Amino acid sequence: MSTPTPHITASPGDIAKTVLMPGDPLRAKFIAENFLDNPVCFNEVRNMLGYTGTYKGKRVSVMGHGMGMPSMGIYSYELFNFYDVDNIIRIGSSGAIQPDVKMRDIIIGMGACTDSNYAKSFNLPGTFAPIASYELLSKAVEAAKELGLPVRVGNIMSGDVFYCDNAKEHDEGWLKMGVLASEMEAAALYMNAARAGKHALCMVTISDKPGEKPTTAAEREQTFTGMMQIALALA
């Protein structure tokens, strides 16, 4: 397939080698307007906003990826395979699973468990374990230390369902396996990166926890700046 693609109107060269990807396109707009120098919008298709600018002299792009693995699967595939992007860093929101994970904690997903059938599209002879790029993960941990931002590194869970009739039982199983938090995109991102021979990392901020008041849409858009700063340091 040539560019532009059905979902991204950018021309070759419009997108940097490293792309930060929040689920919410308005969070992409917030990052571009508040952290990047001279940001230029390269995509508005379906309001999935994408921008390229510079951060501390380094060229970087930021673009929304929407909700769920099918959406992340489309955008990350096109970026890796048609726009020659080398690194995608998801910066998303997440729900706490472990009781000691607190609201607004920053979690770096070393691995991504999943209940999705996304891996079946690759016709593998077994069960694939989606994992982050060690290069990006180690750099993120070091960047967090330099910024004085505490992070936790571990397993996360990428689910296909947001509203679940047996949510408590569902989470208890992952809790027993030490999974830190739940989200909906990392596994697809890690699988697409593996197939393309590229690098990917998922970093999330805890926005919801059972029994506590969840963050608002505006808070998720504009206040998860610690995670944004760590991700920008990887560009």
Automatic annotation (TrEMBL):
<dbReference type="GO" id="GO:0005829">
    <property type="term" value="C:cytosol"/>
</dbReference>
<dbReference type="InterPro" id="IPR035994">
    <property type="entry name" value="Nucleoside_phosphorylase_sf"/>
</dbReference>
<feature type="binding site">
    <location>
        <position position="7"/>
    </location>
    <ligand>
        <name>a purine D-ribonucleoside</name>
    </ligand>
</feature>
<comment type="function">
    <text>Catalyzes the reversible phosphorolytic breakdown of the N-glycosidic bond in the beta-(deoxy)ribonucleoside molecules, with the formation of the corresponding free purine bases and pentose-1-phosphate.</text>
</comment>
<dbReference type="GO" id="GO:0042278">
    <property type="term" value="P:purine nucleoside metabolic process"/>
</dbReference>
<feature type="binding site" description="in other chain">
    <location>
        <begin position="207"/>
        <end position="208"/>
    </location>
    <ligand>
        <name>a purine D-ribonucleoside</name>
    </ligand>
</feature>
<feature type="binding site" description="in other chain">
    <location>
        <position position="27"/>
    </location>
    <ligand>
        <name>phosphate</name>
    </ligand>
</feature>
<dbReference type="GO" id="GO:0006218">
    <property type="term" value="P:uridine catabolic process"/>
</dbReference>
<comment type="subunit">
    <text>Homohexamer; trimer of homodimers.</text>
</comment>
<dbReference type="GO" id="GO:0004850">
    <property type="term" value="F:uridine phosphorylase activity"/>
</dbReference>
<dbReference type="InterPro" id="IPR004402">
    <property type="entry name" value="DeoD-type"/>
</dbReference>
<protein>
    <recommendedName>
        <fullName>Purine nucleoside phosphorylase DeoD-type</fullName>
        <ecNumber>2.4.2.1</ecNumber>
    </recommendedName>
</protein>
<dbReference type="InterPro" id="IPR000845">
    <property type="entry name" value="Nucleoside_phosphorylase_d"/>
</dbReference>
<feature type="domain" description="Nucleoside phosphorylase">
    <location>
        <begin position="18"/>
        <end position="225"/>
    </location>
</feature>
<feature type="binding site" description="in other chain">
    <location>
        <begin position="183"/>
        <end position="185"/>
    </location>
    <ligand>
        <name>a purine D-ribonucleoside</name>
    </ligand>
</feature>
<feature type="binding site" description="in other chain">
    <location>
        <begin position="90"/>
        <end position="93"/>
    </location>
    <ligand>
        <name>phosphate</name>
    </ligand>
</feature>
<feature type="binding site" description="in other chain">
    <location>
        <position position="23"/>
    </location>
    <ligand>
        <name>phosphate</name>
    </ligand>
</feature>
<dbReference type="Pfam" id="PF01048">
    <property type="entry name" value="PNP_UDP_1"/>
</dbReference>
<keyword id="KW-0808">Transferase</keyword>
<feature type="site" description="Important for catalytic activity">
    <location>
        <position position="220"/>
    </location>
</feature>
<feature type="active site" description="Proton donor">
    <location>
        <position position="208"/>
    </location>
</feature>
<feature type="binding site">
    <location>
        <position position="46"/>
    </location>
    <ligand>
        <name>phosphate</name>
    </ligand>
</feature>
<comment type="similarity">
    <text>Belongs to the PNP/UDP phosphorylase family.</text>
</comment>
<keyword id="KW-0328">Glycosyltransferase</keyword>
<dbReference type="GO" id="GO:0004731">
    <property type="term" value="F:purine-nucleoside phosphorylase activity"/>
</dbReference>
<dbReference type="InterPro" id="IPR018016">
    <property type="entry name" value="Nucleoside_phosphorylase_CS"/>
</dbReference>
